[in-house]
Amino acid sequence: MKKGMTRREWINRSATLFGGSLLGAVTGVKSINAATINSLSNKPVRMMLNENPYGPSQIARRAMRKAFGESNLYSMRGAKAEFKELMAKLNGVTPAHIAVGFGSGEILKKSALMNGIDKGELLSPSLTFETINRYAKTMKSNVKRIPMKNDIGIDLNRMNENINRRTKMIYLCNPNNPTGMLMNTDDLESFCLQVSSKAIVFVDEAYHEYVTDPNYRSMIDLVKSGKNVIVSRTASKVHGLAGLRVGFAISTPQIVKRLESYLTDSLNIVGLRAAIASYQDKRFQTHSVDMNNKAKKVVADYLDTKGIQYLDSQTNFMFIKTDIDISDFQPAMEKYGVLVGRPFLPFTNWCRLSMAKPEQMQKFNDGFGKVLR
Amino acid sequence: MKKGMTRREWINRSATLFGGSLLGAVTGVKSINAATINSLSNKPVRMMLNENPYGPSQIARRAMRKAFGESNLYSMRGAKAEFKELMAKLNGVTPAHIAVGFGSGEILKKSALMNGIDKGELLSPSLTFETINRYAKTMKSNVKRIPMKNDIGIDLNRMNENINRRTKMIYLCNPNNPTGMLMNTDDLESFCLQVSSKAIVFVDEAYHEYVTDPNYRSMIDLVKSGKNVIVSRTASKVHGLAGLRVGFAISTPQIVKRLESYLTDSLNIVGLRAAIASYQDKRFQTHSVDMNNKAKKVVADYLDTKGIQYLDSQTNFMFIKTDIDISDFQPAMEKYGVLVGRPFLPFTNWCRLSMAKPEQMQKFNDGFGKVLR
Q: Is the separation of the CB atoms in B97 and B252 below 8 Å?
């Protein structure tokens, strides 16, 4: 794999491996993917995009089938209102505090758009999830990147020092992606309290449901007290609905209203119905988190035996210091049937490994063992 | 119904009638819709949002069920490439000419965004589909509205006269919504040829598949010859997939590339799979168009007997001069079990009527007869 491959290229490549159906048979269009698919005797395990290997739940699938009957209609507003009401109830806010997006990706992009229209500079850690930064650049906004601390954590002090009059939004992913690490909750809360009078703090809590640290708190409480904070959440992770595209923001009614004016403002009814069902399916969520923790333990135990460094992950992935260049590590692991995460610059000797099912993680350990030899 | 109700309010109201499921039973959240639903002994027929009463097709539903297995994955890029390839083949262009959007609504909004970033003024007929104009205003762009001709057609000469240096995009819906009327193809083609050197012409062909006029041609040929034209299409109409949100633009590779940078850039896999299946299901499309023409005839025959004016519709709706204020007409028709279209200012004495199944259209005729008495 080439160095510097973008996330898009990497996903495209992954999609080519798995996404194709055999269109050719019906239309005479030569499927671009058929050759690639046929050359695979045994599908490698996806450990590269932080997906839930168990989802969508059976309850969500049932809701999806039921939604087919509404799928010819422009009638998702009722379902959207219902989703907002449910999210409000589950998070102790009102529906006016909720903006629904086409995945939290849309929330991130439209927040970047909002910031761009305000001619604001975005402040962002140097190692984090890139969607908001990339869209800000598309909007020709400046993005100021703050280096990580020595422990690869987010440097809140340094972020604070770098706020100036042009700063209108600050992006923080907690737990962070690709490190999986939490910020200290009290530090983060203090930072938000201090800074939110000057700029909107966007706290991406995509992995919220996976956090096991008892000291963790969501930043939603700050939203409740009216601070300029946007918390984003997604149905793509623990709910296993990444392909359905449902995410949401929790913020003050003022910010929600403004954000909504930029959103595409309609969702797919199948995704909405799936999310409404899945967020009420506590058993599935608990099962997904339990299995994720088991999967992490399978890998952590192996890495501990080998004395290999990894960060304390509160998510469904682990950031591992393989000491092998990721551009070599990726194809090597693929040979052993495992697809690992894309490169995260400048951490080229690290690998982000998404959790598959616990019983599949041994495949990573075995492959890694062979690559290490 | 209040005068001046916005489209959003109207859809919200419709959604309240039909979109709600009984969330309350599971979560203890009081469903906002339950009361409304229970009070309806007999659902009124939806003739208000230009939906296909037959969709999604069985073949699309099968593809949707199959897509559940991919719904936990971020792997829609393969399906998206497949969809682009299919649209390219069906329209005689290359995949580089296709931008896929979350419904053609997203294509419209992001075109408005693109125009806004160029600081362009949008030129638009005074009576047309409002999505692009509304988003342009959200982007604080100026929208210059051109009055209709006496026959309620789009006045291309006057549009041409109003192009100035600030005009960067021109919106034309063909056939137009809510009139259902086509522009003369030769006139439109000449207009596009002349004007596209100065501004991008956005031709919204959402109702393309319903056109029966043998003189009609899509403006795709102009795209093929490299003109600055964007043609938009949608799976929401003849394919009956409005709730799944799949639309696309056909434009030059240069414009497509730029437009794509603003798009949310991921679709839902269930919608994509449904659209790929449905666009290959010629029988379903033909059946939908045939039934639509039968439905229009049921109404047209009735209106002819009564001597009531209506426009020549090449779509799945009709614009009818009821001579009754739409704010009175809507609730009156609802009483007779028919939901008709929202107000289109300043044509307050007209009604946009979407086609349901032919056998349901008699209900409109009967109700209208009673309202007229």
A: yes
